[in-house]
Amino acid sequence: MSLQSILQAFATVFPAELPDKTMVATVVLVTRYRRPFWVWAGAVAAFSVHVVVAVAAGSAIGLLPDPLVKSVVAVLFLVGGLMLLREARRGTDDEIDAEAEPTTTVRASVIGSFGLIVLAEWGDLTQLATASLAAKSGDPFGTGVGALAALASVAAIAATFGGRIVRRVPLHKINYVGAAVFLALAAWTVFELVAS
């Protein structure tokens, strides 16, 4: 496990996850359940499932010849960047329902959060990015740790400050940052492919 793999995964996944539907969903879940810590715990459990699946897929991709892996990774990053750019250009942000009915049990908070996030994130951009990074880095464990830390951090921000953040910084603007990171990673991967 290398620090470089951890930091690269964190730096890639964090800005891509900030404007994602999961951040809005976490804010809504906190508004509904009124239990930020338990919503966060359910979300992190769901993210753990996704990271394990992504790292396993990335490790399998990593067994392919290096030029093919770099080509696949570049395409995945390019597609991810274009998807984020498209979302940013739409310029719309989801409204948060502050009047939702609260649920009082811890169990309902954790299970509800886990269920929603595990379904919402399946095949998501950050899961694809994690798989790509695991394939490229050759360090699936470090990539998994970095990706999970990024996902848990975004969930923590959403659970703690989400309502205030969404009211002040439009999510479509954050999408531009995520798009820039993904497009830069695609360009870097193409450069590595051509240079090797």
What features would you describe in this structure?
This protein is mainly alpha-helical. The protein has one domain. It has helices at residues 3-17, 21-33, 36-61, 66-90, 106-120, 125-137, 140-168, 171-195.
Helix content: over 70%
Give the helix/strand class.
Answer: mainly alpha
Which series of helices and strands comes N to C?
HHHHHHHH
Strand content: under 5%
Task: List the SSEs and their pairings.
Layout: H1 3-17, H2 21-33, H3 36-61, H4 66-90, H5 106-120, H6 125-137, H7 140-168, H8 171-195
Helix pairs in contact: 1-6, 1-7, 1-8, 2-3, 2-5, 2-7, 3-5, 3-6, 3-7, 4-6, 4-8, 6-7
Quick description:
By secondary structure, the protein is mostly helical.
Defining key terms:
196 residues, 8 helices, 0% strand, globular
